[in-house]
Amino acid sequence: MARVGKLRWGDTLDDEDLLPPPTVKGPDDHGVKTMVEYFKNEKGDAIKKTTKIKVVTVEKKVYKVTEERRKWPRFGLAARETPQDSVTVQAVEEIPFERVRQVKATTQEKKATDIQQVLATADKTVISGSIKEMLYKKRMERELLRAKGLLKEAEKPPEEDGKGGSGPGMGAPKPGSYQPPNLRNRGGGEGESMMKKREDNSIRVTNLSEDVTEGDLQELFRPFGPVSRIFLAVDKQTGENRGFAFVNYVHREDADRAIRNLNGFGYDNLILRVEWAQPREAK
Amino acid sequence: MRPYLLKGHERPLTQVKYNREGDLLVSCAKNLQPCLWSSEDGRRIGTYEGHNGAIWTCDITWDSDRLITGSADQTVRIWDLPTGKELCQFRHREPCRAVKLSAGERFLAVTSDAFMESQPAVHIYNFAENIEDQSTEPALTWNVPKGRCTRVFWTDCNRKLITSHDYGKLRRWDVETGALLQEETVHEDAIQDMQMSPDESHVITASLDKTAKLIDIESFQVLKTYKTGRFVQSAAMSPLFDHVVMGGGQDASQVTTTAAQAGGFEARFFHKIFQEEFGRVRGHFGPINTIAFHPSGRSFTTGGEDGYVRVHHMDLDYYTTKFF
């Protein structure tokens, strides 16, 4: 079978050995190099494979002397070492440069120290004065929002002297809105065991940021009087807190004062909600 | 990044040092052979055989021709760096803790620990250009107060020495007479490492009081303090950015009793001016004993109590990220 002249496609199909030779083109103006190869797969089909590679030239300045040092013969233990010794290994896993979120921690710390300073330096009147000031600012902001119709009537700010009990938004929950478990089935028979807890002067703190620790709460609530217990709800899986906590005071007046002063208090960019652990009326 | 793990020492590392161009890296450890590595790919080029005790420190000449090592076997040795041949040794009666060549490399400062009846001391040698002319006797020796003298630097056109010590002390000495010129307590505990800034205007000290400090050379005034909450064994300054990196971790004797995560064995990056931490690189499973930045600032090397040297080449985002 002497083949003369051009190949016919019918012939090439018959003949297994005949595949066009691989070609390499480029790199072109964009630095793209194109390579075309032909091969047969296991089924005997002819496959055309096109590979495009971008060629980038990187210029790197090196010392002349360091290039010469590359030629140094190895000596000592290095001359006797074999690849099996694996003296030098490149780490298999990718080691990240981990960012440390410093900013958040510092603002929190700053806030904590601010509060501490206020609490440490002045007597109680000044404290309540400064916190009152903050509360006033917050209230004015909310007032402004309400005037614009942005804040619903239900979210009225709490009264300054704390009718406490029902707390904001707790009296008449909107249908379908979230209700804390302790308020569900109100008037239902269960809650016998809860009654006991209500005896102690327990207040509930919600809308905490996830960075808050028990120590922070201690700092926050301690100044109002002796605290007998602080419970911060922590998610078992994630280890982060769940945004609410219970604080028990030894004296009822202290708890009352804490509620009056800290409800609506801006802490770590969130506005705290502090109220009695359950409505007073339930007593 | 994927660091190179260099397993040339089975014992804790004591110092890693780059040469001037940064293509070579010398590591010293508590085993007997210091190693020479290519910093680019971590290839071991050679080892220096002859010491008979832990190697505490080393220094490399400007032209990377000689290596000077100080050892607990009470000798300081000068090596031909490219071939590993020992050229000369100075015999002491005490372990040698720190060595440093002067600017111009006409002199060599060696510090020694207290041992038997001898007190800790500083020794000044003439450093000869031709090894045949090298004298093995110190030109000048003076005693220093109690405690290790962990690092030494030449300052003020080779007229003065500054040394870091146990008990958090920095001292300045007159080289001509050996007179004590200044003494400051800058740390509350031992200074483990001291490294010079590229412009030789300030040093960074790493201390067991859990801080590293930036200290002005002229006045010994503390410029910046970096609080880490753990022992700092070594700290280095980036020649490229206003970054400092420090390594350390809990006490070596407690390593086995706690989880690796709790040990704090990462290399920690602080901003030099703001004194705030912004990044960490983990990897060692023991405290980092020594840390060094490449002269270009594009890679850094850590040596750990675990016997590993890790050479990190920075990823692109280290240069592009705005950390502050």
From TrEMBL, chain A:
Alphabetized SUPFAM superfamilies for the sequence: RNA-binding domain, RBD (SSF54928)
Superkingdom in the source lineage: Eukaryota
UniProt subcellular location: Cytoplasm
Family assignment from sequence similarity: Belongs to the eIF-3 subunit G family.
The keyword Membrane is annotated on this UniProt entry: no
GO biological process: formation of cytoplasmic translation initiation complex
Stretches the record annotates as Disordered: 1-31, 148-205
UniProt keyword Protein biosynthesis, yes or no: yes
Positions in coiled-coil regions: none
A single GO cellular-component term on record: eukaryotic 43S preinitiation complex
Name this polypeptide is given: Eukaryotic translation initiation factor 3 subunit G
InterPro entries from the UniProt entry: eIF3_g (IPR017334), eIF3g_N (IPR024675), eIF3G_RRM (IPR034240), Nucleotide-bd_a/b_plait_sf (IPR012677), RBD_domain_sf (IPR035979), RRM_dom (IPR000504)
UniProt-recorded Gene Ontology molecular function terms: RNA binding; translation initiation factor activity
Major subcellular site: cytoplasm
PROSITE patterns: RRM
Pfam families attached to this UniProt entry: eIF3g (PF12353), RRM_1 (PF00076)
Keywords carried by this UniProt record: Cytoplasm, Initiation factor, Protein biosynthesis, RNA-binding
From TrEMBL, chain B:
Quaternary structure (record): Component of the eukaryotic translation initiation factor 3 (eIF-3) complex.
Species annotation: Edaphochlamys debaryana
Major location (coarse): cytoplasm
SMART domains found in the cross-reference section: WD40
Compartment list: Cytoplasm
Record-linked Gene3D superfamilies: YVTN repeat-like/Quinoprotein amine dehydrogenase
Presence of the UniProt keyword Lipid metabolism in the record: no
Cross-referenced PANTHER family: EUKARYOTIC TRANSLATION INITIATION FACTOR 3 SUBUNIT I
UniProt-recorded name of the protein: Eukaryotic translation initiation factor 3 subunit I
Listed SUPFAM superfamilies: WD40 repeat-like
Region forming the signal peptide: none
HAMAP family: eIF3i (MF_03008)
First and last residues of every WD repeat: 6-47, 48-89, 184-225, 281-311
